[in-house]
Amino acid sequence: MHNEKLKIFSTIEDLREELISINNFIHDNPELGNKEFKAVELITETLSKHEFEIEKGVVGLPTAFVATYKNRIGGPVIGLLCEYDALEKLGHACGHNLQAPSVLGAAIALKKHLGDNPATIKVIGTPAEETTSGKIPMTKAGLFDDLDVALMMHGGDRTTVDGKSLAVNNLEFIFKGKSAHAAVAPEKGISALDGVLMTFNGIEYLREHVRDDVRMHGIISEGGIAPNIVPERAVAKFSIRAADRPYLDEVVERVCNVAKGSALATGTEIIINKGKSLESKLNVQQLNDILLDNANQAGAKQITPPRSKTGSTDFSIVTQRVPGACIRVAFVPLGVSNHTKEWEVAGTSKNGHEAIIEGAKALSGTSYDLIKNPEKLKKVREEFEMVKESQHSMKQNVSI
Questions:
Q1: Fewer CB under 10 Å: which end of the chain, C or N?
Q2: Which domain holds residue 104?
């Protein structure tokens, strides 16, 4: 390991108690998306103290921020992204409290040991990952376009890098019928719930005829008022996922046709609302390898290859613009899923605190490697462009 990298890791150890204190404060003061004011105040105050220039409320998001430190003119621009929103009723059961202190440790230590190396470090606060997905408007506004790489840290049940993620579309189907007494005059009613139930059945039949990577899961959010009233209104919500956007668009169209057909068959009216849409992650293997190698150098535990099963993330839209990678650092036992009480409790545990330090070292070590070795960064960029071009060709060739 390079001597300067050892110094960076040593500085992170010196920051340990401060980083743990920041983590515990964010954990014990959970804030929902776009309301993370306490977290943002603490994070930006800390960065300002270390000579980062702070810009709050970027792209009109009250709890989004960019903190910048420039070392000489030129050099790569390294983006370190963090989330800090909590879950309703569950608090920090997704471990977002770990991210900011880990990124702070990486940014502050890296800044201290840049020496004569020209580089820009940007810490970018991205709100509301769990709800409205702050990275989407931030990406559309071009906020990440000047980055050479975008790096993130997330807690996990193992230490690995995020490989692929699934593109996703959220759908809401509102069925409207006609109410009537279900026993006295059912023939005068039109059941909106029948439309919903037929939609679920149709989607079940559709599963046989889509690719294995497709996920279609839904709930009935409204199903009627009482058993003796024919439901006048019923609502179903679905998340439809697939490994790539072109195929997902095909599947979404088929799902919507199932819902329209169900409305026609049951005599109901239907309104289709298309909600949040996320892209699949553009995977740059060389960047993943550098990040995982630095996690190993940091002494991280439970290191494994990328997961075969995955969900969706708003970080994926960033990776469509610039090379991006996310390190997941183990802090809960293998097999323990996020959005659970176990994750929330582990957020202030010894393992949680170690994950902060290991994540900070992995992020700073990767950043240092890319700053010191322009050839590595060039190869990462070349792979990114190659994968992006391949993805573009797939979109051009997809059958409609």
A1: C
A2: 3-164+281-391
d(Cα 261, Cα 259) in Å, to the nearest integer?
5
Within this chain, do residues 202 and 184 fall inside the same structural domain, yes or no? Answer: yes
CB 245 within 8 A of CB 394: no
Most distant CA pair in the chain, distance: 85
pLDDT above 80 (res 195): yes
One-letter amino acid of 274? K
In CATH, what number is assigned to the domain containing residue 13? 3.40.630.10
pLDDT in tens, 282-293: 999 999 999 999
260 shares its domain with 287: no
Q: Are residues 172 and 236 in the same domain?
A: yes
Q: What integer is the mean pLDDT of 89-98?
A: 98
Q: Residue 124's beta-bridge partner residues? A: 66, 81
Tokens for 123, please give them: 């810490």
Are residues 190 and 158 located together in one domain of the fold?
no
On the question of pLDDT at 69 being above 50, the answer is yes
Structure tokens at 182: 């279900």
Domain end, chosen from 217, 247, 278, is at: 278
Confidence bin at 398 (pLDDT 50/70/90): low
Q: What is the pLDDT of residues 308-339, one digit of tens each?
A: 667 888 999 999 999 999 999 999 999 999 99
What pLDDT, in 10s, does the model give residues 164-188?
889 999 999 999 999 999 999 999 9
Q: What digits encode the pLDDT tens for the residues 12-39?
A: 999 999 999 999 999 999 999 999 999 9
Domain tally for the chain? 2
Q: What is the CATH number for 216? A: 3.30.70.360
Same domain, 124 and 28: yes
Q: Please indicate, yes or no, if residue 137 is contained in any of the structural domains.
A: yes
End-of-domain residue from the set 278, 305, 336? 278
Task: Give the global pTM.
Answer: 0.89
